[in-house]
Amino acid sequence: MLNPDWNPATDPNAKQLNSRITLNLNVNQTVIDNGLLAGEIDVDAQGAGVGSTAQARILSSPADKADADNPLNGFARFFYLNTKVAPLDNAHCRQAVEYAADKTAIQTRQQLAMCGQPAGFSTNLAYRDDNSQETAAATALKSALARVGIKVTLKGASTDAYYTSSAGSTAYVHSHDIGIAAGVWQGDWSDGFAFLDDLSAGNAINSVGNTNISELNDSAVNDLFDQSATAPSATRTALWPQIDEQVMKDAAILPGIYVKTVLYRPPNLTNVYVQAYYGMYNYAVLGVSS
Q: Which of 7, 35, 50, 185 is the most buried (most CB within 10 A)?
């Protein structure tokens, strides 16, 4: 029902364009995509874009493509390299993973020798198996690392369980030897702290719901975060690249891609535009035509 307390005079940025909003949870992405394309669903609230099958259909159809958008959405996809799970507790073994993923085989052999594993090693990789993009990325990394003797066993989990009882649980990580874990992240605001702190600060490590899955606890990184708490704006801004550089020296993160998505909007969805910072539609102003 309409909100009787909404006053357009004091809220000029929002409109009451809908009399009712129905939100369905825990719906498979393929079901969402098919519903969008059939006009049975108005918008995908997750805003992460359609899956690969729907992408192929949209991009090959001029009519569907006209109702699609392809923004950068502020998210980065990457892999955590755990600093506490053997043999990746050795920085050279983590660097071996970095180099193998980058396909520089000569440097990879050197790092494997330096970490005491010249023939390679075995580790487990956690990922969300109900996410087609992450499944593809995990499978591709497994293949890349196999070329240099790093044997990866994939350990899938649902999105719902990922941070509670899989990669985000330190007990699970250590009992299942999770040396690598897929990650995706977006800062809550446009600032280095918002992106880096939860991923790499020592005090961000939690037993459950952990987002510093690398379990990086580097005093140099922690000191820079401490400095940022009291530093003036210009100085604070200069600290973020230093933190990023140290995290990469620690080989705690394997960078992937900055995410671009294919968003689909059925023709009856109105007042649609991409909110530039988040790279998603502004849900607060959407309407539907009858």
A: 50
Report angle CA 124, 132, 24 to the nearest 5 degrees.
120
Q: What's the topology of domain 75-258?
A: Dipeptide-binding Protein; domain 3 (3.10.105)
Q: What angle do CA 129, 132, 135 make, to 5 degrees?
A: 50
**CATH class of domain segment(s) 1-71+261-290:** alpha beta
Q: Evaluate whether 252 touches 93 at the Cβ level (below 8 Å).
A: no
The angle formed by the CA atoms of residues 282, 283 and 287, to the nearest 5 degrees, is 110
**CA atoms in the 13 A half-sphere facing the CB of 5:** 0
> Considering the entire predicted model, what is its pTM?
0.78
Residue-range domain boundaries for the chain = 1-71+261-290, 75-258
Task: Tell me which residue of 59, 37, 6, 31 sits closest to 269, measured CA to CA.
Answer: 37
Classify 198 as helix, strand or coil: helix
Kindly state the DSSP code that residue 287 receives in the 8-state scheme: E
Report whether the peptide linkage leading into residue 87 is cis, meaning its omega lies within 30 degrees of zero.
yes
Going by pLDDT thresholds of 50, 70 and 90, the confidence category of residue 105 is: very low
- Indicate the angle between helix axes 91-101 and 105-114, nearest 10 degrees: 170
60 CB-near residues (< 8 Å, 6+ apart) = none
